[in-house]
Design a protein that fits this description.
- The chain has 227 residues and is an alpha/beta fold.
- It contains ten helices and five strands.
- The chain has two domains: 125 residues, Rossmann fold (3-Layer(aba) Sandwich), CATH 3.40.50; 79 residues, Orthogonal Bundle (Arc Repressor Mutant, subunit A).
- Helix content is 48%, strand content 13%.
- Strands 2-1-3-4-5 form a five-stranded parallel β-sheet, with helices on both faces.
């Protein structure tokens, strides 16, 4: 039995890039492009009629930037996973983008095959640990080292820390539940409770907090390409 195709929306104001990407994705067995939009207002209008699992979105567009766009999409359609595309190297801007609910960031110079892997991964509710995403996390960790540690850091239970570590390892709710001998609904509740407790809006926001506060065990191999 064939798996249900992943419904994808592409949002990019460059017509040639958008249509070329649409043609490439349409050739993939498990991907179905149901929306092409030049900007976010057009996307939001079309989302009323076409169900979408993943939005592949340029972070620099007319009318709204990626940060504002992600907030609008997540508020209107919280179930949709956002995958950002960027040529930007501003770590502060990319870091802010991760706080509003995107599941990963890919560079437009990455290989097309990586985009397919990322779409598949985020469609299952997992973060995709791309090179650019990991670079932003590394930047956050270095920034955290330079800043004094907040004395009011919130203490987390060991189970909470285990869940965040597994999220960093790109595990789905089902995989986390099996690893910790919990129900899927229990894992979902732990994730939401963590977001509420830490005041973050997204899974990647949890990861950022955990890295900055040395909760996640980051191995040297995670950042090997930076040295």
């Amino acid at each position: 039995m064939l798996a249900k195709p992943i419904n994808v929306a592409i949002v990019d104001d460059h017509t040639l890039f958008r249509k070329t990407l649409k043609n490439y994705l349409s050739e993939q067995r498990n991907v179905q492009v149901v929306i092409q939009s030049p900007d976010v207002p057009d996307l939001l209008k079309k989302l009323k009629d076409f169900p979408v699992d993943v939005v592949v979105m340029d972070i620099f567009m007319p009318k709204l930037n990626g940060y504002e766009a992600a907030i609008l999409v997540k508020e209107a359609y919280p179930h949709i996973r956002i995958l950002a595309l960027s040529m930007c190297t501003d770590m502060s801007l990319l870091s802010d983008l991760l706080d509003v609910g995107v599941y990963s960031i890919l560079s437009k110079v990455d290989e097309p095959e990586e985009l397919i892997r990322a779409i598949t991964c985020v469609s299952e509710g997992r973060i995709y640990r791309s090179k650019l995403l990991t670079e932003v996390m590394y930047w956050n960790m270095q920034l955290g080292i330079k800043k004094p540690v907040d004395a009011d850091n919130i203490s987390l239970r060991e189970r909470d820390k285990e869940v965040i570590q597994l999220l960093w390892e790109e595990k789905s709710n089902k995989e986390i539940a099996e690893h910790l001998y919990l129900g899927i609904r229990s894992v979902e509740k732990i994730r939401q409770d963590l977001k509420d407790k830490l005041g973050v809006k997204s899974t990647v926001g949890l990861i950022k907090y955990a890295i900055n506060n040395k909760i996640i065990k980051v191995t040297s191999s995670s950042y090997s390409y930076f040295y």
